[in-house]
Design goal:
Length: 753
């Protein structure tokens, strides 16, 4: 066994159990944060890809007239196609409101793109329906429940006999319409007139990587009204997991930084306590390299053990952190990743190595003869500090408290830095909570500046427009017509906006609003994907209609990760609006939807705007838990550092008690030192947290397509209280951890040990 390894094992045997447990815990927390973030990012993809393969690889979904779709089935790009599937559109009651639904007949189980049954059975009668799995979970529906569907003003009640996953679009509530399945007799009962039905064709491509190219080509075919390629659908399904996982992993950096400062401070204190032992080892022949290697070895053994524990913990909790997929597909199984283990060990190993080697080198290079003295020589620095504090006219307890902090500047700086990281983590978590709350309460930030939707299908457009303009409950409205459009060989979502442009209250981020034909307003994702800027002109194909548009501005949009282009509806003459988007004067979205149903009559399909605060809640709660863990670790480190400093100065405390210091003054001394460290941490951590929050939040909002600069800072009250709160917490920690020592008899304290 090498001398270095013997030193490491000997150090472990002589190490305090509490100190060893603290190092292991810090390493485990850091590893768990990184592994959980990486796992959340990677766990959704395999689940989705498995369903994609089980569904026969639905690479392309083409909407249009049945005859036109039938003519496409022999296209050279297709390896296989499913049957032409008829469907109708309607409105289904869900919870307290309603959502748009696409109701289709069930293709054969072996067909390309066939939905996957998750519970129950397929419909066998006209009054039975299989429900969209994600929407059913969200609404708490179970097999056997009654659901109410409205198609063209004809309400029908059906029995839910099962739930299924369909990959022709992403899952509710991120995408609509939800997908329902009935047997042919059921569809005939819901939409007896052929004009009320649409059709779709699902194709498997010979080259799945060419989905965008095939979509761009087929989207301009006569009779085709829309094309949806699988890569776009997959990205929409996984966007929440990717953003949430990246944020978790990024937030894990705070844990790693806190771990670095905690371990460095602990190592410095431990090496100070072991300075005579180190000098003796050097005196009997151990080299500096062996001493440093032994000290590093014992820390790495603890750290790697903690990293393995953290890897296991992160792997186990990752399935419970899914956002967006769990309702549709259920919790994913535990995925053991050797790569994640290597990453965790590497991260923790690097952090612990840097945190241990620096103080170890300093300790090993001290002169052996000086260290082996009974009392190390005192430097002039503490005397200078004492004189400076005395000139400031501070109270004796304050002078001694600050002096104890400044006497060990290195350890004090590391302790304050760890606490500053915790303060920054709290600021970041509070900022994310504020940002997510704002997105929920201000729908324009996510590209939905309306309160209710009136479906355009089966609606008299002129009558609806006149009724909306006359209603006192309506503050404004505009129309929307969606088309899959192409630019070059890539497809994207294009929207024709009608009505009064001033009432389409999108959140404009740059440029000018959409006012006239020939202008376009785009999402941030569109700018990045196609490499264009405000002021550029783009030539697109909206269905069969070629359009030349000048981009006049970009706005906040999250649908299709911001890859959306809007233009005036006048450029699609004769196109029927898909929907009327209505803003209420004062009422809630649900109250506005009720008023619209009463005014427009039973033939109108109306639904309130949907939001998903529960899913966002998982995101914010996870960040809050992470911030709490960082804060707990940093406070524990602060308490340990203050207690260690007090024990080092136990004889000085005894002398002070002998000359008249009271227990209260002794506690005040420790509280002053803690308050000073807390104040320094707050002053540094607050601006650092604001900068870190801006960077991380911009990454999140950019990733979901809304663009940077959409952050909502924490309340000014919270920010104003951060620095004084850090000082108060430091003072309390200092008083609490030294309470027992302060009450020790002076005779015991002054003994030299």
């Amino acid at each position: 066994m090498s001398a270095t390894l013997r030193l490491a094992l000997s150090g472990l045997r002589g190490r305090s159990r509490v100190g060893a447990a603290a190092t292991t815990l810090v390493a485990a927390l850091a590893a768990a944060a990184v592994v959980a973030g990486l796992s959340v990012q990677s766990q959704g993809g395999p689940q989705v890809d498995e369903i994609y393969r089980d569904s026969g690889r639905p690479d392309l979904v083409v909407y249009g007239e049945p005859a036109a779709l039938d003519g496409l089935r022999d296209d050279a790009a297709f390896a296989a196609t499913g049957p032409i599937t008829p469907f109708t559109s309607g409105d289904v009651e869900l919870g307290d409101g309603s959502v748009e639904a696409r109701i289709a007949t069930l293709p054969p189980a072996s067909a390309v793109g066939a939905p996957q049954l998750r519970t129950g059975r397929w419909p066998a009668a006209a009054d039975e329906v299989v429900f969209d799995r994600a929407a059913a979970v969200e609404a708490g529906l179970r097999d056997g429940d009654q659901v109410r569907i409205n198609v063209a003003g004809r309400p029908v009640t059906l029995t839910m006999v099962g739930t299924a996953i369909d990959l022709t679009d992403c899952f509710y509530p991120d995408c609509d319409p939800i997908r329902l399945f009935v047997d042919p007799a059921g569809l005939q009962a819901l939409a007896p007139v052929a004009e009320e039905r649409g059709a779709l064709l699902i194709a498997q491509l010979t080259d799945p990587a060419a989905a965008d190219t095939a979509a761009a080509r087929l989207g301009t075919s006569p009779g085709v009204t829309g094309v949806q390629p699988w890569p776009d659908t997959r990205d929409d399904i996984l966007v929440r997991e990717l953003i949430f996982g990246a944020s978790l992993a990024g937030f894990g950096v705070f844990v790693l930084l806190a771990a670095a400062f905690v371990v460095a401070g602990t190592a410095a204190a431990r090496l100070l306590a072991r300075r005579r032992e180190i000098a003796m080892l050097q005196a009997v022949g151990y080299t500096n390299r062996q001493v440093i290697g032994g000290l590093l070895g014992e820390t790495l053994i603890l750290g790697i053990g903690g990293a393995v524990v953290g890897w296991l913990a992160g792997t186990l909790i990752a399935p419970f952190l899914q956002v967006g997929l769990s309702s549709a597909m259920g919790r994913g199984g535990i995925r053991v990743s050797a790569v994640a283990l290597l990453v965790a060990v590497a991260f923790v190993g690097v952090i612990l190595t840097v945190a241990t080697v620096l103080p170890a080198r300093r300790a090993a290079r001290q002169p052996v003869t000086d260290v082996l003295r009974d009392a190390p020589p005192r430097s002039a620095a503490p005397s200078k500090v004492a004189r400076l504090l005395e000139r400031l006219g501070l109270a004796p307890s304050t002078r001694f408290g600050l002096g104890s902090v400044l006497a060990r500047p290195g350890r004090s700086a590391l302790t304050a830095a760890a606490l500053a990281i915790a303060v920054a983590a709290v600021v970041v978590a509070a900022g994310f909570v504020s940002t997510m709350d704002k997105i929920v309460t201000d729908p324009a930030r996510s590209g939905d500046p309306y309160d209710a939707v009136v479906a355009g299908d089966g609606t008299d457009g002129a009558r609806t427009a006149a009724a909306l303009s006359a209603m006192p409950e309506v503050a404004g409205w505009y129309t929307q017509t969606d088309r899959r459009a192409t630019l070059g060989e890539e497809t994207f979502l294009a929207r024709a906006i009608g009505g009064d442009p001033a009432q389409a209250g999108f959140m404009l981020r740059a440029g000018e609003p959409l006012r006239a034909a020939g202008e376009a307003l785009v999402g941030y994702g569109f700018l990045k994907r196609f490499g264009v800027e405000v002021g550029d002109t783009v030539d697109i194909q909206a269905g069969e209609t070629p359009l030349s548009l000048r981009i006049v501005g970009w706005y906040s949009e999250t649908e299709d990760t911001g890859e959306v282009l809007m233009y005036r509806a006048e450029m699609l003459p004769g196109a029927v609006p898909d929907a009327f988007l209505v803003t209420g004067a004062a009422a809630t979205p649900e109250a506005l939807a009720t008023a619209l149903r009463e005014r427009l009559g039973p033939t109108a399909t109306v639904r309130a705007r949907e939001s998903d605060p529960d899913e966002l809640g998982i995101f914010t709660v996870s960040l809050q838990v992470m911030a709490a863990l960082v804060l707990a670790v940093s406070l524990a480190n602060l308490a340990a550092a203050l207690l260690s400093g007090a024990r080092e100065r136990a004889r000085v405390l005894g002398v002070l008690r002998t000359v008249g210091f009271t227990v209260r003054q002794t506690l005040a001394q420790s509280a002053t030192g803690g308050a000073a460290l807390g104040l320094a941490a707050g002053v540094v951590g607050l601006p650092a947290g604001l900068v870190a929050f801006q960077v991380l939040a911009d990454q999140v909002t950019t990733g979901i397509g809304a663009g940077p600069g959409l952050t909502q800072y924490p309340s000014w009250l919270l920010l104003a209280l951060t620095v004084p709160a850090a000082a108060v917490v430091g003072a309390l920690a200092g008083a609490v951890v030294t309470r027992r020592l302060a009450g020790t008899p002076a005779a015991t304290l002054v003994r030299w040990e």
